[in-house]
RNA sequence: GGCUCCGUCGUCUAGUGGCCUAGGACUCUGGCUUCUCAAGCCAGCUACGAGGGUUCGAAUCCCUUCGGAGCUACCA
C-alpha cells in the first residue's frame, strides 16, 4: 500500500429513501476516518438506479449529513477537482470505459433475455449448481450476433470473469478469498447503455483516487467484481483501494436494519428530539469502541480516537434505550444557551409559544428545571405548556383526584398561606407551604404537594412544584388554585 | 441450494495464552435520596453457542459442529 499518504475516503450512498441508521453509521465512520487521518472525505451520490433514486432523496441526504455535522471536502455543494459527484452526470465516462473493456475483450455483449436467464438460473438451482450467468454469449460468432440483432435484441455489456480467484485483505476481516467459479460474469451496462453499480463504483473509485473504501458488509461479495474492473482499467494491484467492510446494524428482528423493521430514518430521530451528537456518539459505539471504558465521547474525541483496526467484525443490534440514555446525557451536558436554541423550535412547532422575546425569557428561566428530566427534546412542549396556556383547565381525569376532602383542605390552606406573600420566589413559597402543610397539618410531603401540583400544572407529573409556582407568577398561581376549590 | 461473513451478560462492548473466580455501559431488579417525574448514589442478576483438541495454562490457537446474517438482479 505505497502511495496512501493522502487518505481519500468516500461516502457513496444510493439514496432510494431517507438516509437511515445504517447509512449514517457508515457515513460517520467514513467521516471519522478521513478526519482522523487528516485525509479527505468525498461524498458521491450513486444514482445509477434512476428508477429509485430521486432528487428529493438526494436533497434530504445532503440535509441530514449537514445536520449531523458530517462535512465533506468534495461532493455536492462543495465541488472538487474530480467531479461531478453525481453518477447520473458521469454517464459518458462509464460508457467510454465499457466500450474500452469491450474493445479489449474483457467484456462482451450478451443477448440473453431476462426470461432466458431466469429459466437457466432456476435450472441451476434445481441441479444444485451455483446460480449465475453460464457464459452463453461469451464467444458469439458474427453470424449469431447478427441473428440476435435481426431479432431486435439489444445486448447488455457483460464482464468476462477469468478462471482463478480473487483474494484481498479486508482491513476489518483479514484475507477474504472468492473463487471465480462462484463469481459469474456480471453486467456492467444495461441494454439501454446505462451503467450499473458495479461499473460505476469501480470506475469512480479509481478516477476519484479513493484510497480507502469503508462500506457496509453487504458489499463484501461484490468486491471481487470491482477488483475485476480495476484490472480491466489497467490499475496496478498496489493502487487498489483498501477495503474495510463494516458490520451491519441490525434491527430487533435480527435482520439488517431496513425500513421494515423500525424507525430508521434519521429524519424521524430529528423530529423526536435526538441531538446529532447523541446519534453520532451512539452509532459510533455500534461496531467500534474507544478501547477503554469511556463511552460518552464528543465528536472531536471520536475523530482523535477512531481507527479502522478497532472496528468490530460482528453485527450489532440497534438499541433505542441506549440511544435515549446517551441523548439524555447529552441534553444534560448542554449549556443553557444551547439548550434554549434546541428547545425553541420544538416549542414553536408544538404551538406552545409563538417565539416572541417575552416567551423566550420565560422558557429560558424554565429550562434549567426540566433539563435533567427529559431524554428527548420532543418532551419539552408538554412539560412547559402549563406556563403558556391561556385558558388553563385541569383535565377531568386529574380533576377527580382533587375532589376529596383532604385535597380540598390542602388547597384551601395553601391558598390562605400563599396569598399574603409579598415576594414570590420558590424558596419563600416552599417555606410557608412546608410549615403549614407538613409541620402543622402533619401531612406527608408527597401527599401534601400532589394536589397543588395538579391544580397548578394540570398533571401529577411536572417540573418541581415551587419553581413552577414561581415561574407561573403569583396571580396565575392563585387563580388556578382558586379554580379547583369547590364552593 | 451455493458462496461469503459473523458468534463474550437481554443489548452494545473490553478482552490478541496466564493480569479473567471475565471488566464497563444500557436495560432490568432491589435499596438510598426525594414535593411528582427524572437525575444522582449503592447493590444485584446475567455471558465466552456446543463438542473435541493443542498447552503446565484458552474467551483468546486448531478442528468439527450448530446457529445467525449477507450475497446469489439489466438493485445497490
Q: Which range best describes the helical content: under 10%, 10-25%, 25-40%, 40-55%, 55-70% or over 70%?
A: 40-55%
Number of domains: 4
Radius of gyration: 32 Å
**Beta-strand residue fraction:** 5-15%
Number of helices: 20
Overall structural class, as computed from helix and strand content, comes to mainly alpha
Strand order, largest beta sheet: 3-4-7
CATH class of the largest domain: Alpha Beta
CATH topology of the largest domain: Rossmann fold
Number of beta strands = 11
Average residue pLDDT: 91
Give me a quick take on this structure.
The protein has 487 residues and is mostly helical.
Fold and architecture overview:
The protein has four domains: 1-74 and 247-333, 3-Layer(aba) Sandwich (Rossmann fold); 92-189, Alpha-Beta Complex (Glutamyl-tRNA Synthetase, domain 3); 334-387, Orthogonal Bundle (Helicase, Ruva Protein, domain 3), CATH 1.10.8; 391-487, Arc Repressor Mutant, subunit A, CATH 1.10.10. Helices cover 46% and strands 9% of the residues. It contains 20 helices and eleven strands. The protein has helices at residues 21-37, 55-68, 91-104, 114-126, 142-150, 197-207, 223-233, 266-272, 276-284, 299-305, 320-332, 336-349, 357-370, 380-384, 396-399, 405-418, 426-440, 445-457, 465-472, 474-484, and strands spanning 8-11, 40-43, 107-110, 156-159, 165-170, 174-179, 187-189, 212-216, 242-246, 249-250, 316-317. Helix 16 packs across helix 17 (426-440) and helix 16 packs antiparallel against helix 20. It is elongated. The model has no long low-confidence stretch (mean pLDDT 91). The structure holds one RNA strand of 76 nucleotides.
Amino acid at each position: 500500500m505505497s502511495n496512501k499518504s493522502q487518505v481519500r475516503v468516500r461516502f457513496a450512498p444510493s439514496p432510494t429513501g431517507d438516509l437511515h441508521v445504517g447509512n449514517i453509521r457508515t457515513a460517520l465512520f467514513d467521516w471519522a476516518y478521513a478526519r482522523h487521518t487528516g485525509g479527505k472525505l468525498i461524498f458521491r451520490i450513486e444514482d445509477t438506479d434512476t428508477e429509485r433514486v430521486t432528487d428529493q432523496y438526494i436533497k434530504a441526504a445532503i440535509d441530514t449529513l449537514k445536520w449531523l455535522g458530517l462535512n465533506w471536502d468534495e461532493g455536492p455543494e462543495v465541488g472538487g477537482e474530480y467531479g461531478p459527484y453525481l453518477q447520473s452526470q458521469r454517464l459518458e465516462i462509464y460508457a467510454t470505459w465499457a466500450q474500452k473493456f469491450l474493445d479489449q475483450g474483457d467484456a462482451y455483449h450478451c443477448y440473453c433475455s431476462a426470461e432466458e436467464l431466469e429459466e437457466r438460473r432456476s435450472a441451476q438451482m434445481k441441479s444444485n449448481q451455483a446460480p449465475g450467468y453460464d457464459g452463453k454469449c461469451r464467444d458469439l460468432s458474427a453470424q449469431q450476433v447478427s441473428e440476435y440483432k435481426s431479432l431486435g435484441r439489444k445486448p447488455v455489456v457483460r464482464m468476462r470473469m477469468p478462471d482463478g480467484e480473487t483474494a484481498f485483505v479486508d482491513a476489518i476481516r483479514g484475507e477474504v478469498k472468492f473463487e471465480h467459479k462462484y463469481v459469474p460474469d456480471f453486467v456492467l451496462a444495461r441494454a439501454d447503455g446505462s451503467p450499473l453499480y458495479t461499473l460505476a463504483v469501480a470506475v469512480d473509485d479509481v478516477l476519484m483516487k479513493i484510497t480507502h473504501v469503508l462500506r457496509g458488509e453487504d458489499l463484501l461479495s461484490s468486491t471481487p467484481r470491482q477488483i475485476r474492473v480495476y484490472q480491466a482499467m489497467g490499475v496496478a494491484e498496489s493502487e487498489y483501494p483498501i477495503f474495510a467492510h463494516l458490520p451491519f446494524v441490525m434491527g430487533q428482528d435480527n435482520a439488517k436494519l431496513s425500513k421494515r423493521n423500525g424507525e430508521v430514518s434519521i429524519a424521524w430521530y430529528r423530529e423526536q428530539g435526538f441531538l446529532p451528537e447523541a446519534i453520532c456518539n451512539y452509532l459510533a459505539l455500534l461496531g467500534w469502541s474507544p478501547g477503554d471504558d469511556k463511552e460518552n465521547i464528543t465528536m472531536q474525541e471520536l475523530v482523535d480516537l477512531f481507527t479502522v483496526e478497532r472496528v468490530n467484525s460482528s453485527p450489532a443490534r440497534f438499541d433505542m434505550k441506549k440511544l435515549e440514555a446517551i441523548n439524555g446525557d447529552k441534553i444534560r451536558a448542554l449549556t443553557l444557551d444551547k439548550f434554549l436554541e434546541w428547545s425553541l423550535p420544538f416549542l414553536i412547532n408544538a404551538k406552545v409559544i409563538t417565539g416572541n422575546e417575552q416567551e423566550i425569557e420565560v422558557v429560558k428561566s424554565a429550562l434549567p428545571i426540566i433539563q435533567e428530566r427529559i431524554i428527548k427534546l420532543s418532551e419539552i412542549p408538554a412539560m412547559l405548556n402549563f406556563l403558556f396556556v391561556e385558558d388553563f383547565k385541569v383535565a377531568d381525569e386529574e380533576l377527580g383526584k382533587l375532589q376529596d376532602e383532604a385535597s380540598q383542605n390542602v388547597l384551601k390552606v395553601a391558598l390562605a398561606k400563599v396569598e399574603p406573600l409579598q415576594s414570590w420566589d420558590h424558596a419563600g413559597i416552599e417555606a410557608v407551604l412546608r410549615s403549614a402543610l407538613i409541620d402543622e397539618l402533619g401531612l406527608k410531603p408527597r401527599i401534601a404537594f400532589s394536589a397543588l401540583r395538579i391544580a397548578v400544572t394540570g398533571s401529577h407529573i411536572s417540573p418541581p412544584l415551587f419553581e413552577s409556582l414561581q415561574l407561573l407568577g403569583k396571580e396565575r398561581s392563585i387563580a388556578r388554585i382558586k379554580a379547583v376549590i369547590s364552593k
